[in-house]
Fold each of these.
Amino acid sequence: MSMALNTVYNNYLSTYTPKALTKYDTHKKSELRKVYNSIVKLNKDAPWYLPTTNKSTQHYAVDLKENARDLHNTIAQLGGLEEDNSLLSKKSAYSSDESIVKASYIGSQKPKGEIPELQLEVRSLASSQENLGYFLPNEKVALAPDTYSFDVGVNDMNYEFQFTIGESETNREVQERLVRLINNSDIGLRASLAESEGRTSLRLTSESTGLGSDRSQIFTITDSHTSKVSGTVDYFGLDYVSREANNAEFLLNGEERTSSSNHFTIGKLFDVQLTGISPEDKTVQIGLKTDVESFTDNVTHLIKGYNDFMRAASTYLDFQSQSKKLVQEFKGIATVYQPAMESMGMNLTEEGTFTINKDQLRRSVSQSDNIGETFAYLKNFSTTLLRKSDQVSLNPMDYVDKTLVAYKNPIASRNYVSPYSTSAYTGMMFNSYC
């Protein structure tokens, strides 16, 4: 049962929201209760509609909800959920060479004392383990027809894979089936086929990188003690390690350090992503940008989040008539603030997106005596977008073409709640799995 549910959610996440999750995607019980109460309130007097069964419409509703969530998170990352009026005041980090090290600031927005600058020299990147099997011709499998199995050990967890080899199956057909079997299992390995001169090999790569102090491999494959017929590990060469996992090695302010991942934090101040190896004796400097640069980055990030949402919504204009209503509502919000934003280098296009003249924006920020007061309209713009994105996320069905069945009686003493009318996308995830 748990494996089936994993498959459902993996399909949902890979199909509709291939985006990294943030801390704003976790919620307290009180926040979830607030969402539930909002849904109940929306449904209390909502009309009755026929259920949505069209696949493209269902995809649109889920996609709309997820893009609204993404816009919400963009504003939240800029301080939009804080109560201390810190919206757009988030500090930004810089890296002197982002082809080697990328950095972002994760410390307090009101740090005590001066934030130190760091020097990094990357000597090697953390790498994943790769197993590459034998390159076999596309001929009939040389193993006898039967049910086979092999065991995979990953991070102290053991998994058994069972599969059947038929009478006339070829090497490639079995390899392709193993690729699907392993990828659908979601155990931390990715499988693919490697091809060379008409022959195919099964390639297995760990999703994680690096090794702990007591480990020599991230994963192992064996069939010496498996429950079904053995022999596939030797036949396909699944246990051959073609690339060993390695830790990242670097110098931090001249001190040698290692990390099992290329992505880590330093002193609860900087989130660091190693992306390349440093030239000999060349260091990358990491530190905080000036307030002018940080504010410019925040505004650019806000406008990018708004533009991404508008472009995503506009892709459905030719297929979903109600998407025009959504685009017009967001464009209407932007139009209210258009005059002030144009004077700062942000221009509204006919499609409802913004272009940014970064030099003009940076100049406007640097010439301001009080950034907070000068750009107060941007905070109002962000707050309005946040409320609107929450509304869309709560009720994406408001922008879906629906067939009205009946209005509820406005003078009835009591109207019963229909809890899924405005949030039908919650059931759409499971339509193909029930």
Amino acid sequence: MITAICNEILLRKNELNTEEIQHIYFGGGTPSVCTVAEIEQILAVIYTNFSVSEIPEITLEANPDDLTEEKVSAIAGTKVNRLSIGVQSFFERDLKLMNRAHNAKEALSCIVNAKKYFDNISIDLIYGIPGLSNTEWQQNLQQIVDLEIPHISCYALTVEDNTALKKFIEKGVVANVSDTQSSEQYHALVNTFEKQGYINYEFSNFGKTGYFSGNNTAYWQRKKYVGVGPSAHSFNGKERSWNVSNNGQYLKSIAKGERPFESEILSEADQFNEYIMTGLRTIWGISLKKIETDFGIQFVHYFEKLAQSHLDNELMCKVKNQYHLTKKGKFFGDGIASDLFFIPLNGNQ
């Protein structure tokens, strides 16, 4: 697989032309199971074939059970300069419920290990877990504050089909996810981290100044990116593409010198709707100037007309020519965004 990933990088070297790479992100699975030699192999191919900025952000997603001090020390010897650790919770009960491979002790010890070698660390937490009280959630948040982690990503628990949790809920063994509980814990999250000097720069992400995720910010600002490996997605501004998810098919195609992928050209309406959806999630909001420049004045009029009701209900606010969600509107952001989508009347885009 590592060889195939390196070969795909070579197949696609012309996609970036002479553009400089700002961020490299090892994610979309469990890259921390890779050996240091494998990580270095991939980085060597990138550095040999592309222009990379002088100080790029290079992130490795990691599971706590992989991050022994020996492994962290070895990773620190590579060009990787940021760790994103999937802790999810510091409570044993929650980890067992979500079928996580690590335990509560490893959740804490891996961060202690990581802090010895890395300054730029991000931790993932999940709220809205059945049985997770608001008091326990606050204890999770306080643990992050006490550990002085500079970046946090927090997500509401979603119950996927064909999972053990879904079956437990259907059988009544576990309580269902509560929207009320999720809302309360989200607001506690925002209040806690704002008091600690974190900036809620995107709905689910909080960072100290200088520690925003450059990689994820690029996604939200709809910048160009190239995704490599099975299931990886790519975007060039007007077209999205995604590699086949089947590992065997991926390996066979790459071995033949072919990239196995599908793609779609985004219509003007698609591009507008994506901008609305991603922009509202961030502190940068929606710019009327950008809408006019990218899509035309008619889209400005359309947006302002639909946004008025949300201004009246104090779910959105307007500062100069920028629209933002209010604190009251943040938890309803996805619904508000869909209200603002452009849907062509004749079905043509």
Amino acid sequence: METPRVNTKDPGIPSDPAMPSKEMLAQVLIQRHTRPVYESMQAACVGIAGLGGLGSNIAVMLTRLGIGRLILADFDLVDLSNLNRQHYMISHLGMEKTKALAQQLYQINPYIDLTLYTKRVTAQNAVSIFKDCPIVCEAFDNAGAKAELVNTILENCPDKTIVAASGLAGYGSANDIKTRKVMKHFYLSGDNESGIEDGLCLMAPRAALCAAHQANMVLRLILNISEP
């Protein structure tokens, strides 16, 4: 396996004497979230497989929460069709999604620890890619790839929890998006029905809603909040 880029600060971000220190950012998060939450988030490592409408938004939310480390994996480049729902801009067109997203995350928190894998996640490499992550977010838009990743993690990594998504397409009621515990180490967000295979569109509001559900479930898992 190729060596991933670790903590690769984007060279396009200039050195700024007004850049807040790590301590300054920590104090703000402690004020907003309390010290126990901040310390739990800082100690956490989460993996995200797929950096599209779900994964890019999950990564941004977890970074704003003060996550200490993210392992991000996606093989794709940003293209024009992504801009209707994914956390990318015109300036990112043609860039690897891993690099484009890292650029944004460092703008939110320049001290976050990022590990980037610009490759397709498969049953053969998923365990190795996410070996350091107690929690993995499944964020693919292909049903087969979703099932493959979930089964791979559940079968080979009994100590890991996977937070997946199913049913977020279209413009149905926001209240239909829910998160449920499928089994001890498997949580599923979405309405479990609305898919692009039914001719529905992938749109920003429901993609972001489902991503928020996944990010919130990750937060609860990190804080050891039990689910029924």
Amino acid sequence: MEYQLKKETCFVCETVFEGASEQAVDLDLSLPDYCPDIEKILKCRICPCVMAKNISGDTLDVDGVAVIKLYYLDAKKQAIRLCEHTDPFSCTFRIPSEVKDPTAVIRLKTEYLNCRAVGPRKLDIHGAFSVGAAVYARTAQEYCCSVEGDDIRQKQHTESVSCLCGIGQQQFSISEVLDIGQGKGSPESILRSEFAIDVESAKALSDKIMLKGDAVLRLLYVTDIETGTQDSMTFHIPYSQVIDAQGISDISRNDIQLEVMNYDVSLKSEYDESSTLVTLDAKICATVLAYEEKSVEVIDDVYSTVCELELTEKPCRYSRIAAMPDSDISVRQEVKTDDHAIGKIMDVWCDSISFLRSADGVKGKVNCCILAQDKDNVPFYAERPLEFSHPAAIQTPNTEARLEIHCKSLNFRITGDNTLELKADLKMKGLVMENKVCRCITGVVGNEEKKREKDKNAALTLYYADGGEELWSIARQYCTSVEAIKLENGLTEDVIQARSMILIPM
């Protein structure tokens, strides 16, 4: 005899694929004719960006470009020069083909880079960067809530589950013409640019969410090609964007991820020497995962008072949001530039942030890049780490965390001939999920050949129970119910508090 099971379905966010592809960079590079000879290499960077990503069937294709940026001193040691080289790349990831409506998030990271000059105009560059991909899907998870039958006795408990009610991904562009303004000098070339975007507020509507925040563009540019004179500028660009996310509502908790896929900065002064205008074109990809809290009744155990049961089971995962970190971290530290006496700081920026999670929180390092001039006006470059920690309890055996830390601002103050104080303001965001895996009953069949016999000659049975013994185990053994034992003995708890004699109705 097969019993009917009452089931409930919750949708969960499943990471159906997570992997990375390493892209090698091996170049024998010659400087273009318009670049002066190399006296000394200051810094070489790989700046990869995504131009397009596409999921088709069981394939995720990612196409992009890797821009090699070389900062060096020219042969006269008069100025910092920039040479750029662009290489396209593409990679393919295999994902499960049965996944419905998958969503991919791409992360790019420089692994290592070695650069050396083999002549005044020739470079040997070797390195690698990784293309990391995470593919999410909205999948159904069934939970058995109860078993129907007059002879059935079941033990249940309530689980709190964060159900994925909506998922959406959308690309949008930010295109602006920005004015550096008078008194700063007309830009003739851009030495360094940095673009970042953050969400300051998110308002969910029916199946849509409105994102608002600031995009920040930082520039270090040359105002005189002959002398290499530099200046800097920071632009704050407010944005507002509506993202489609089917199933999102005003009560959902929303995990929002923004990817800067690529951006381009160009100068109007290329056509007008007196122009102070800068053109920005950026492509952003927004991913929204919306969750709603739900209580689910789950069967722990079941038996029949009539016959033995044969159960089929499978493991089920119960996930709920434990935390959604949104914290500011500030770190201040004095660093030295070794033998270089500081005459002027031209630029400071955050090159990368690395961190580790533990039960005590987060610990990491901010790699700070310093571009400066010494007392003789000769440019030099230095990198210094800033260590930070944050007491966020986000790492336990049953949690899975996705954290991102980015640098909102990096400021400096010269405190000595070769010392300066760096202050980094960081933002930590992410999602911490608490996971629990339990057995889930998927089928109940009664074996009518194995009847459970009761003692029909007695209405009550005396039972000597030990302290800590569960009424459920006693009821199961004697083919009765927990409620009947409680009623007969005037008990209110499910566990026997101290060794005692109880009456069991038969």
